[in-house]
Amino acid sequence: MRKPMVAGNWKMHGHRATNATLLDAIVRGLPTGIDAAVYVPFPYLEQVSALLATTPLTWGAQTLQAAPSGAYTGEVSAQMLVEFACRSVLVGHSERRALFGETDAQIAAKFVAAQAAGLQPVLCVGETLAQREAGQTEAVVASQLQAVIEAAGVEALSHSVLAYEPVWAIGTGQTASPAQAQAVHAFLRQQVSRLAPEVALGLRILYGGSVKANNAAALFAMADVDGGLIGGASLVAEEFLAICAAAAHTR
Ligand code: PEP
Question: Which domains does the chain have, with CATH numbers?
């Protein structure tokens, strides 16, 4: 049985004072039986690692540089994230793909670098609205996944998490229906299963895209939805905790 996971992506939000209040409230209300994590902007990693060190809430960054060191102004390596006791890192978030031009090949290299440093990558895949309307959803997510499988090997997925995030649902308030999410999650699992059935069985696939307290339970009730990657609602303790509670109750 796959343990549910709820991951909060803070994006470029936060402030030292409010971070502490938010995390304190989340830690106090966190249910057992799930893995919960927050992915915070780089400057807050030190604060978050100090605040969460003795709690069950884990933390990570929202991206990384694949190279270990060198002339990469503005970038942060996997080894640097490890120094802040990060356990994991988001890779291939659609905002990184769209706004910063990250390619499948670069994302695959980040995935490999994260794992080499002992970090669990959370690989994000998802189609745009135009791609969905053109009937390309499966082809798009399959090729995003395939790029990582080719670079890292299918077994590497056992030490990672997959997140299906339809671009049209991120930050828009327009959530995929539970049936739409389930269909893509099942497809992704089947893609892995063709190569490595055991890996597919254990692989957690999170849904992300306007998950809120009022729609989380229906999404998490789907057989192949193992939790959520939460943006906006991860910045409000009561919302995030209600989503965590929904995840804890689905298994
Ligand atoms: C995200 O940032 O990955 C995300 C899913 O955002 P939101 O929940 O706000 O749609």
Answer: 5-248 (3.20.20.70)
